[in-house]
Amino acid sequence: MSKSRGNVVTPWEVIAEHGADSLRWYLYASAPPEISRRFSSDLVGEASRRYLGTLWNTYHFFVLNANAAGQLDFSTGAEAVHEMDRWVLSALSALVEQVGHSLDDYDPTGAARALQDFVEQLSNWYVRRNRRRFWEGDAAAFQTLYQCLLPLSQLTAPFTPFLAAHRYQNLRRA
Question: How far apart are CA 138 and CA 161, in angstroms?
Fold first, then answer.
């Protein structure tokens, strides 16, 4: 981008179109800070749809079906008996460790990419494979998804603080 050539992207236009969290996410997840990268409003939108959109849809699926299921108690952690529940909780545990190490090593891109991979697995594997359990009101499935979404909001907070705070506060009220 060059100001003299007139191909500069105004950050306020990108923030107005996609939001501050989307811009922050793109800057963290696209490439390490020391490497040059392409930048456009379309790339910010694509990164936002791939991660923030998928995470928001998973959260919305949880809220919608948990409200439809009725009174569920999320204050106590139920033991994961189903194989898919154990798998996703194990992947979450590995994610927490990996994101912690990446952030301790000042590698926000590695942490962001690990979060992106986990959200894709959570949405495309866990939620899709267990839809019937959610529709039938299986409390263990809801508890497991809750146990994933709450720490995921905490892990995402350094990257997308506004959306993470909104999700976290709503989940804590549950």
Answer: 31
CB 99 within 8 A of CB 155: yes
pLDDT, one tens digit per residue, over 69-123 is 876 777 666 666 889 999 999 999 999 999 999 999 999 999 999 999 999 999 9
Report the C-alpha dihedral over residues 170, 77, 118, 90, rounded to 10 degrees: 170
Residue 26, judged by CB atoms within 10 A of its CB (0-12, 13-18, 19+), counts as buried
CA distance 104 to 172: 27
**Number of residues written out for the chain:** 174
Q: Looking at residue 129, what is its pLDDT?
A: 94
Do the beta carbons of residue 149 and residue 166 sit within 8 Å? no
